[in-house]
Amino acid sequence: MLRYTVLNPKRYIPMTVIIINREPVELYKILKFEGLVGTGGEAKMVIDEGLVTVNGMTELRKRKKINSGDVIEFNGESYTIEFNPKS
What we know:
The chain is of the alpha+beta class. 18% of the residues lie in helices and 40% in strands. The chain has 2 helices and 8 strands, in the order βββααβββββ. The strands form 2 sheets. The protein has a 6-stranded mixed beta sheet, with no helix packed on it. Strand 4 and strand 5 form a beta hairpin. It is globular and about 35 Å long. The model has no long low-confidence stretch (mean pLDDT 88).
């Protein structure tokens, strides 16, 4: 996975783009591998606590399948997912 920042046109705030090389990817794995939490267990805990949204909706499924175009919000930050099989 790779990350870079762009401007979110709907909110005019920076949004980090996360590049994935396969899809779908489970939500907790994105939080873990991108370093947004320390461990997979912590990722599952913050999802259980309702601290993560996907496409504007609170997501409680740890294994929610994330695809290109999805927007994840966590800890006051927004992350959009892009698929690039060559990354």
